[in-house]
Design brief:
There is one protein chain. The chain is an alpha/beta fold and about 500 residues long. It has a single domain, classed as FAD/NAD(P)-binding domain. It contains 13 helices and 18 strands. The strands form 3 sheets. Strands 3, 4, 5, 6, 12, 13, 14, 15 and 16 form a 9-stranded mixed beta sheet that branches. A 6-stranded mixed beta sheet has the order 7-2-1-11-18-17, with helices on one face. It has a 3-stranded antiparallel beta sheet with strand order 8-9-10, with no helix packed on it. β13 and β14 form a beta hairpin. α3 packs parallel to α8 and α5 packs across α12. It is globular and about 70 Å long.
Length: about 500
């Protein structure tokens, strides 16, 4: 691949473990991604970034450039850096516990214009597929807790949307995991069986091992099996905006287009920290790092711990032959023979536009390109990247019967693709807790491209820790906890995952 305009990759590499003979299925999140050879980081791109489909839909929304006060406050109790789903949920929980405290949320660009506003719109709890990977890395108990937490997170997200009647195109239905060849299907079954063997909950998963029936159920011609369980799709920006509007109504101060540049010790005895921004300084006692991929740009100790990586999402307008009563009615994770993945969100309760994310072979090339050009690791200006889109197009042409049965007219087909920046965690799971040796600075970041299935419990869990509650009160897996020992172990020499 030459030096081209490119788009965004998927998750990172869980390091420190080796998985013989299972790379085809277990590591679709790490497909094409090796541990970064650079301690790369950077601040959010300030011009020329691509617009996701979600951001295209809200161009007249005043929340995009909202500033609650004309000037930055000089002093507050808490500064939250980042206005995506993490920062918005941290602010919400903070206001519930300490309604009297002053909080400001800083956003470097438009409101919710980072990973939350750029993903493929899935909240898909992993219910089995990565179990063995996590088991080898963290042990059986923690692996079970990780998948259990994803189910709880999905339920919390759905309950919030329904309970608050949030208009965000929520869909609830069966998501399908579909292996495309016999070897992938064999490994998938082995992994599923291992999960069952150790007591994993599977009574809500419908399994079809007969290829003929799997192709019928999934509508994918080469399907060799099909695993189905409940999940959701949604318009993530609208959900986050609803939460933030409520925060503002309850006293939060949102400041968009304000770049947090560093956090330094306060020279004053009154407060602990000073957050330096391009618009001035804010003194505070508490800082929450909710910037995910950009965390290491502000906090240098996180270099090599959380790494930014661009990733692509394709927007496809289905042809008439796959519209109306024939429209796609389920979301997908399509497991490819070479270890890649297509994530498919059909928006079947909204406009029927189909989103293709995941790590296809074109995404692998993008990862390789970023390794050669680490200065572009935070470049979310990639759009309409042919090397990624062509693999989506080839998949649709081959696997969706009748997709090209008629003439594709104007307004149909492969409309657009955009990029977002994933925060790859060095050990594959998020960091939640207080920064070592920096009392009063907290973090919820490193979601590894899977934040929608983790943050709705991780962000409120962080605020419980800020309130002095124990880790067990969060309900989160122990391996998510930010500790000095965890950081030290990550920095030790280790074999890379396969």
């Amino acid at each position: 691949m030459g030096d081209i305009s490119y788009a965004s990759p998927n998750l990172g590499t869980v390091t420190g473990i080796t998985l013989p003979d299972t790379a085809t299925v277990l590591n679709v999140e790490e497909y094409g991604s090796s541990p970064p050879t650079h301690e790369r980081t950077g601040f959010p791109k300030q011009g020329g970034q691509s617009l996701s489909y979600w951001l295209q839909q809200v161009r007249c929304d005043p929340l995009l450039d909202h500033r609650t006060t004309e000037e930055l406050p000089e002093e507050v109790d808490t500064v939250i850096i980042g206005s995506g789903i993490t920062g918005s949920l941290v602010a919400k929980s903070h206001l519930q516990i300490w309604p009297e405290k002053r909080i400001v949320i800083l956003e470097a660009r438009e409101f919710c214009s980072g990973a939350t506003g750029r993903n493929a719109g899935h909240c898909k709890p992993d219910q089995w597929r990565h179990f063995v990977k996590f088991e080898k890395a963290f042990g059986t108990e923690q692996a079970l807790k990780i998948l259990q937490n994803e189910q709880v997170t999905w339920q919390a997200l759905v309950e919030y949307i329904q309970g608050n009647r949030v208009d965000c195109d929520l869909w609830i239905g069966d998501t399908f995991d579909v292996p495309l060849d016999h070897e992938v299907a064999k490994i998938a079954k082995e992994m599923f069986d291992r999960y069952v063997e150790v007591g994993g909950k599977v009574d809500h998963i419908k399994v079809t091992q007969d290829p003929v029936e799997a192709a019928k159920v999934s509508r994918i011609k080469s399907a060799k099996a099909c695993y189905a369980w409940p999940a959701s799709t949604l318009q993530p920006w609208k959900l986050t905006a609803s939460i933030m509007r409520d925060n503002i109504n309850h006293g939060a101060n949102l400041q968009t287009f304000t770049v947090a540049q560093s956090v330094v010790e306060s020279p004053s005895n009154r407060q602990k920290w000073v957050v330096k921004t391009d618009r001035g300084d804010i003194a505070c006692d508490t800082v929450v790092h909710a910037t995910n991929a950009y965390s290491a740009a502000i906090e240098s100790s996180l270099k090599g711990i959380i790494a930014p990586t661009p990733h692509m999402c394709n927007k496809v307008i289905p042809p008439r032959s796959w519209s109306g009563s024939k429209a796609i009615q389920n979301s997908y994770g399509v497991l490819l023979p070479d270890g890649g993945l297509f994530s498919i969100n059909p928006r079947c309760t909204a406009d029927g536009v189909v989103m293709f994310g995941g790590s296809n072979p074109g995404q692998k090339k993008l990862d390789q390109y970023i390794e050669r050009h680490p200065e572009r690791c935070v470049d979310d200006g990639f759009a309409r990247v042919d090397d990624v889109t062509k693999h989506v197009r080839n998949f649709v042409d081959k696997e969706f019967e009748g997709w090209n049965a008629g003439e594709i007219g104007p307004g149909e087909g492969f409309d657009y693709s955009w990029s977002g920046i994933i925060g790859r965690s060095a050990d594959g799971v998020p960091f939640v807790g207080e920064l070592p040796d920096k009392p009063g600075q907290w973090i919820c970041a490193g979601h590894h491209g899977h934040g929608m299935a983790r943050i709705f419990t991780a962000a409120p869990g962080l605020v419980k820790l800020m309130n002095g509650e124990t880790w067990s009160a969060t309900g989160l897996p122990d391996v998510y906890k930010m500790t000095p020992e965890r950081l030290q172990n990550i920095k030790l020499p280790r074999p890379r995952i396969r």
